[in-house]
């Protein structure tokens, strides 16, 4: 997969299949309530193999359940994380999961949310065929 395809294909894999499911957002000015926010992790690219053109792309799905209150957002976070992992597992694109972080407070645009990070390490090609 090309580096420029990572977020597009990941967004397609996590896209809502009904109106009551959370949206996938890239770099929003504000969080629209429960959502999946796509980002890159550090380091962004990790060498993979010895051909020089394949890399692991440190890709993050921030699972954002909502503001810290009400406490029921923990069950929302659990459900959203399980849904994301299920969709990534069956998607035609390979989405190797590196880790799933613990639920924690995450601040976006000055507002604190309950969130967890799913870190993926898909292989991307850069400068090769």
Describe the protein:
The protein is of the alpha+beta class. 21% of the residues lie in helices and 40% in strands. It has helices at 6-14, 73-90, and strands at 24-25, 35-47, 54-67, 97-100, 104-108, 111-120, 123-125. Strands 1, 2, 3, 4, 5, 6 and 7 form a 7-stranded mixed β-sheet that branches. The radius of gyration is 15 Å and the shape is globular. The termini are close together. The model has no long low-confidence stretch (mean pLDDT 91).
On the 0 to 100 scale, the average pLDDT is 91
Rg measurement, Å: 15 Å
Q: Could you say what the CATH topology is called?
A: Alpha-Beta Plaits
Helix content: 10-25%
Q: Looking at this structure, what is the CATH superfamily?
A: Phage minor tail protein U
Number of domains: 1
Low-confidence spans: pLDDT under 50, at least 5 residues?
A: none
Helix/strand order, N-terminal first: HEEEHEEEE
Number of E-state strands: 7
**Beta-strand percentage range:** 35-45%
CATH architecture label: 2-Layer Sandwich
CATH class group: Alpha Beta
Structural class: alpha+beta
DSSP summary: helix tally:
2
The major β-sheet equals:
7 strands, mixed
């Amino acid at each position: 997969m090309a580096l420029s395809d990572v977020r597009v294909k990941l967004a397609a894999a996590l896209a809502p299949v009904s109106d009551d499911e959370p949206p996938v957002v890239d770099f929003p000015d504000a969080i629209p309530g429960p959502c999946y926010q796509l980002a890159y992790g550090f380091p962004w690219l990790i060498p993979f193999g010895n051909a020089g053109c394949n890399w692991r792309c440190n890709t993050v799905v921030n699972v954002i359940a909502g503001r810290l209150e009400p406490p029921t957002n923990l069950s929302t976070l659990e459900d959203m994380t399980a849904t994301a992992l299920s969709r990534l597992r069956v998607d035609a694109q390979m989405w190797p999961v590196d880790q799933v972080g613990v639920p924690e407070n995450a601040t976006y645009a000055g507002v604190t949310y309950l969130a967890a990070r799913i870190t993926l390490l898909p292989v991307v090609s850069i400068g090769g065929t």
